[in-house]
Amino acid sequence: MKPSILILHASGVNRDAEAARACELAGAAPEIVHINQLRRGERKLTDYPMLLLPGGFSYGDALGAGVRLALDLQVYFHEQLHGFIDRGGLVLGICNGFQALVKAGVLPGIRRERPATGLQAIEEMALRSVTLTENASGRFECRWVHLSVNRQAKASFLRNIEELIFCPVAHGEGNFQVKDEETLAEMEREGLIAFRYVDAEGRPANGVYPLNPNGSVADIAGICNRRGNVVGLMPHPEDHIVTLQNPLGCTGRLGLAIFCAMVAAL
């Protein structure tokens, strides 16, 4: 049987259909599930081996990109979500989904001896060591970028991706920043950086616009947690899953590779 993937939908999310198609091409059986179905208990995370939070503008980004969805994850689904992750379930957050995971403190995660609950879980949202903020350009960025995959990242399934990824970004708040240099060094040391912006030859973007489209520190385009089963990235790999979508008419470097690698790990 094909592995099932829960694709979470909330008001304002608009990339769920594209994410579902990418999952199908990767050999999975995706199901788009509204967040209210989870709240009513009609679906449970334990029914699936993988959760995907797609892009869009959840709740219109009224409180900031991904913030309201992050509140939902912490208030209504904290125990269910963290239990899912602790049991080894895979999670992928794309663009707004990545923002929600970061704002909820799920990425890169907080070291603790026991899971946080209730008020402590909400307080941790204000104690994040990383964030995603407004693009350095001060405007919405919609352009194609190249990504290199860190094959030494804790997300071990990324080691199966050997070539660069070419796909678009479409965001106003994709600027990944860290609390301090110590945080960045720790992320480097522990293999929490999963994707970086590079040029077409795979050379570091070195913060140069538009290779690095948003000003992210150390050209970080995506990260993972310490266990390696939660991954988030700002670019949209679901928008380059067939060659026909390539604006340059070139072959290869499909974003589909990310979905194939994750599905193979299920």
Give an overview in words.
The protein has eight helices and eleven strands. Helix 3 packs across helix 5 (96-103). The mean pLDDT is 94. The protein has helices spanning 16-25, 35-39, 67-75, 78-86, 96-103, 118-125, 181-190, 256-264; strands spanning 4-9, 29-34, 50-53, 90-94, 130-133, 141-149, 165-171, 175-178, 193-198, 220-224, 230-233. With 266 residues, it is α/β, with parallel strands linked by helices. The strands form two sheets. Strands 2-1-3-4-11-10-9-6-7 form a nine-stranded mixed β-sheet, sandwiched between helices. The longest helix is centred in the first third of the chain and has 10 residues, at 16-25. The chain has one domain (4-264): Rossmann fold, CATH 3.40.50.880.
Observed structural traits:
two-stranded antiparallel sheet, glutamine amidotransferase, alpha/beta, Class_I_gatase-like, globular, PRibForGlyAmidine_synth_PurQ, hydrolase activity, Rossmann fold, 266 residues, ligase, single chain
Show the helix and strand layout:
Blueprint: E1 4-9, H1 16-25, E2 29-34, H2 35-39, E3 50-53, H3 67-75, H4 78-86, E4 90-94, H5 96-103, H6 118-125, E5 130-133, E6 141-149, E7 165-171, E8 175-178, H7 181-190, E9 193-198, E10 220-224, E11 230-233, H8 256-264
Parallel strand pairs: 1-2, 1-3, 3-4, 4-11
Antiparallel strand pairs: 5-8, 6-7, 6-9, 9-10, 10-11
Helix pairs in contact: 3-5
